[in-house]
Every structure is written in C-alpha cells, then in structure tokens.
Write the structure tokens for this entry.
Amino acid sequence: MAVGKASQLGIDKADVRRARTLARQVGKPIVDLAQRHTTVSVERATLRLAGLGGADPDGTPWVNRLADVVRADVGLEHGVTLPVWDALVRGEGDDLLALAQKAAAGSVTFRVPEGRDATRARAASRKAVAAGIKRIDRQRVARERMIAKVGDAPSKPWIYLIVATGDIHEDIPQAQAAAREGADVIAVIRSTGQSLLDFVPEGATREGFAGTYATQENFRLMRAALDETSRELGRYVRLTNYASGLCMPEIATLAGLERLDMMLNDSMYGILFRDINPIRTFVDQRFSRQIHARAGIIINTGEDNYLTTADAVEAAHTVTTSQLLNEYFAKEAGLEDWQLGLGHAFEIDPEVPDSFRLELAHAMLARELFPDAPLKWMPPTRHMTGDIFKGYLLDGFFNLVGAMTGQGILLVGMMTEAVVTPWISDRDLALQNVRYVMNAAGNLHEDFHPSPDGFIARRAREVLGEAVDLLQEIKDDTDAAGDPPLLAAIADGTFGLMKRPADKGKGLDGVARKAGDYYNPATEILEGS
Amino acid sequence: MTLIRPYGDTTGDGMVQLSFTLPIEHSKVAEGAAVQLANKMGMDPALVVHAKPMGEGFTFFVVYGRVNHLVDPSTVEVVERDYPLLTPKEANAAIKRSLRRRLTVVGACIGTDAHTVGIDAILNIKGFAGEKGLEYYRELKVVNLGAQVSVPQLVEAAREERADAVLVSQVVTQRDAHLLNTREMSAAFREAYPAATRPLLVVGGPRFDETMAEELGVDRVFSRGTTPGEVASFIVHRLTQEKAS
C-alpha cells in the first residue's frame, strides 16, 4: 500500500505488512530451490539467446536436438553451456548451428571441460549470450522510442482484445482491425495444448486448435503488422502472448527478442491447471521472469483461473494469496511494480445477493494492496450462459467495476462468451459497452468512497484476513520429504481440489539439480553478477 | 398437436428479431440489402430498426419482422430422458441394492482440451445449478483425472480403478476436436475391453448433439445445461438395470 495514503477500506497497514512478510517467507525457500536446479527449457533458452534458432527437417528445434545430445553425453547438471562452448572452442563446429547439426548426426562427443578449457568455454559462451541479451535491450529501447514517437495508449485501462484464428495470416488482419476499433493490447491466444509441448514450434503457422502457436516467426510477423498499425493510428498497440507451460524460459526469450509487450506468466498456473511438475515450473518461471524484467515486458498473472474452477466468493482469498505470491516471485526476479499485471476476475454468480458489491470489494482490495501495479481485470465467463442479452448487462457491470477501481488492463468481455468465437459485431458491441461505461462513469472513483463500516469495506478486510490465514497455513505446511512448505501445500491440495506432489507432473524428467561446476552466462548477466 | 408460430405480443403475430452483419458500407442500399435478406429468410414485412457501421466495409443490423412459417411440435425429434431422475439418496440406495459395492466413475477432459469447467461441474462436490456433484454421492467413487488426459491414460486409469462408468468432457470444438476425440476414446475402449465388461461411456459438453451417441460409439451424450443429478441418474439407471436383467 502506498505510504501515507489512508485506506478506503479501513485496512490496517500492519495486516498488509504481515501478508507480504508471509508471502516472502513462503516464497523464499522456493527461490532457493529454483536456484539449485536447472531445466531443459532454461538451457535451451540460453542457446536461443546465443543465437541458435531454426529446426531440423522434422520440425524439431535445433536447440532441442543439441541440448538432448549434450544431456545424453554429460548430463544436464552442469548446464549445456560449458560442454557446448568447449566443443566450439575445440573446433567441432564453426557456429552453434553447425555444431547442433553435427551433434544430431552423432559426430560430436561432448565433455565437461575443466581448468583452462572451462575458462575459455565460459568466456566464449558469455560473449555469445550477451549478444542475445543486447538484442533484447535494443528491443526495449525500440519500444520506448516508438511510444515516444507515435504516442501511447490514450487512457487507462488499456483495452485488451483477443484474436484466435489458428492461422497467423488470418490473425494479422483481425488484430489490425481490432486495433483500429480501439484495442490498446492485442493478445494472440495460443493453440490449446501448446503449454504441454516440450519444444517451441518453428516458423509461421497456419493450423492451431482454438488459437495460434506461439513461434518466433509468428511473434515477428504480428509485431511488424502492429507497428504498422501503431503508426497509422498514432498510438502504440501492444502485443501479448503466453509464456506459461513447459517452455516458459524459451518463449519469454523469444518474446524479448521480438519485442512483445506483455506476457501471460503465472508462478503456479502450470502446476495447478496443467499438472506440470512444481519444481520445473518454479525454476522455469524464475528464469522467464528475469528475461521479462530485462525486456521491459509486463507480465499478466492467471488468478482468474482460480475463480473459473472454484466458487468466486469462497475462493476470493485464494486470488489475493496468489497475487501476493506472484508479486513476491516477480519482484525477486527483478520485475518492477509497473510490470505486474496481477490478475483477478468478475466471476461471482449473478444470482448471489449483493454480487456486484462483492465484486467491487474484491477489486478494491486488489487495487489497495497493489496501488502501483497495472491490475488485469478479467470478464465473466462462468456465468455467461448463452443468454447474450443478460451477458451484455453482466459485461456492463464488469466494466463498471473496472472503471471504479482504476484497472490497468481490461480484457473486453464478449456477450457471446461460451457461444462462438467473437464475431465482428460482438467485438464492436463489446467495445461500445466499454466506451459507454468509461465515458459515463470513468471518474466515479473520485466520488465513490465506501463507508468504512459498510458491506464493501468489511468484505475486503474479511478477504484479506482469509488470505493471511491461508498464507500462514501454507507456511506451516509440511510433508514427509521435508519439501519447502509451498510445495507441501500444493501437494496436499491447498489450492482448490488439485493435489500436485513435487515428484509428479509433466516435465519432471527435464529438471536437474545443479552440479558444483554448473554455469549459465544468461543467469549471470541477468542477475548482474 | 396444434401448430404454432412465434409470439411477439399477440397470439399468432409471428414476430421475430434477428441481428447480423453484412460486408457492405452503411447506406440506404445496405439497409435495403438487409431487408432483402430478411425477406428471403421468410420475414415479411421486415423492419430494420438499427443499422450501424462496424469497421471498414461492414454494417450491423437489427431487424424485426413477421414470419409466416408454422411449426409442428409433434414432428420434432429429440432425445427424451429415458431414465428416472433420482435424488442422491435414491441413487445411493439403488447402487447398494443392486451392486452391493460402490460404483466407480472415472472422469477426464481428453485430448488437448484444458477446460475442466464441465467435468468439474458434474464431478466436484460443489456441483452445478444447485445440485451437488457426483463426489457428494456416498455410493459413488469418483476419480477426476482433470485436463489434457490422453486416451491411453484414460483407458489405463479406467482399468486400474475398475471403472463402471467413464465420463468425458469436451469443451473445445474447433475443427470438431470434440467429435474426433470422442471417437478415438470410444474406439480405444472397444479395443481394450470385451463388450460385456466395457465401462459405460458418457460424453458431455456444451456443443454436443445428444442424438449422436451411436455415431460416436458412446452410451450417452449430454449437452449444454446437464446437471450432476441427470448424469448420476443415468449412470445408476443403466448400471443397476443391467445388473437386474
């Protein structure tokens, strides 16, 4: 909470401090754990930073081919950097691509270099990876320059619209049209299931399920198209994609290289909703967030998911808890407040009495707890029944909460949610709804002060209290293996009904405990050492 | 059976509303084109009550009008519920009486579908539409495998748990993924089990057509708005009846 600013909700600053302290106590052992491990995707992201791209004729990326061979020869625990650059220094390949091709053909044997060989490999790798990070730095500068030149989104909240055709060449005109209609942020929904692929597909793609594959080329094409539209409209149109999943570090890297502006990146989403191994997720999210921090990318966290699988009133405090954990992990990874698009959603059953007041209480709580974060406000989905008329009204109330609580990013709700992928008219009507509400009530927060003992303030304090209790419960959790409390809590189903043990889940075989001589120049540079 | 027509505010007025977009700039011609479309759809007279440009080269219309069509409910084909609705208590009693053990239900979202909303609404104790989910039924053992379960994993889990019924939810329908996945699933179960011991296969999701059960190779298809009680009643009815016959 901002220092010196009185709480509108009568929240005691000591409670907020306590919540943050607990989040840190719960999060710190996880960070330690993440620092002790590496994953195949962290290693592949490092190779991507050093400039290795492309795929073999079967579509398997060269980073996967190379990392797999290195791993088979010397294991993952030393990282791929030393063995790879040792081979390059030894003249096994002119460059990374040639080396990857040779490795795939089985004509290179990797070793873990020692002594002067290791020193040489370290120096060479650091130079190569630094070049990639420099490219990310240049993209960040390019974004800042472009915003200075063409102008930024005219007002908050930024209007966030989705395209999802599955074909990048269909997505582009749709995205440009959406931007012309008023979108400040375009999100390209990923193909269903990409989060469970242990590689990043390559090239421009024209086939996807309920979305378009996140690939470097698709990123590049869409960003170039939106640059053109930004110049035409005189305002910078931001581009969003999804990092979460088995390839978080790599997708984050590609996003930085291709100047995406926001990325969906939640610290626990992969564990809870995709059954990805918890350790894999925490290691991957930390590296990916370090990249996002460097790239000036705003992350969007996934708290809305808690409310689509559990009751939005009963589970309100799980959103707050997750926001506090996401904030801790994000800041630890170097992200700043302005980069924290912490998520929350309008998902209370409209039949519940006072549902609007409850929504307002929850949204105001998030606003007070994170005053400098551009919160991401997600529209109703669960209670959109196909009655488009009722849905349109519900979206109007959702927009009203957004206007009253100064949301940073507003995902535009569609009255045809759960009916069809949005039609051109659905999008236009949805934007009219947003504009009407913002125009009519955008400054209502100046006049609206909930009574300190009223329903809204009491409810907000209640939810914060429950979140503190939950954090305390997590902190005190234990398991037989002596895992960090958060892992124990995730394993015994503290978050929803989903039990996710630390030794289960997808992608576990891609995790290794670092050996003493582990080296990764990307981590070294990103952590500023 | 009486013939009926749409009702606006007077019996027999045949009034309907319609909205659509035409790929044409807004103009008098565009409005005329909207009327022409409505006429061709059987609305006569048709009144364009709203026309608004949308994006470049598109116009959105709301049209009210009268249709002359008659509908005959007696010729409509639907899948009527062919099992009695049971309360959880009655369902538990029926299972106890006829199976003398708990009935095991394995549920999952298969393929790449990550939307567990449907399966959770039916299985989680929380339930849906005021009805408790299957986990609430004392005589049902529920194993919810969650999302993105592969068909071989599902078959394996069904064997391991000795499932009496397998529930599959499919929300994503792009490129008919829900139909393809369901066919793959039912084929796998047919291959893995002799016909006599195969678990009851039930599939559900908002975009399924309830008449397609046979075509998809499953025992029942549930569509939008299905409640946990309906699913439980169906399963109990089929499995306890089977035992009795």
User: Anything to note?
Assistant: Chain B touches chain A through 28 residues (CB under 8 Å). The longest helix of chain B spans residues 228-244.
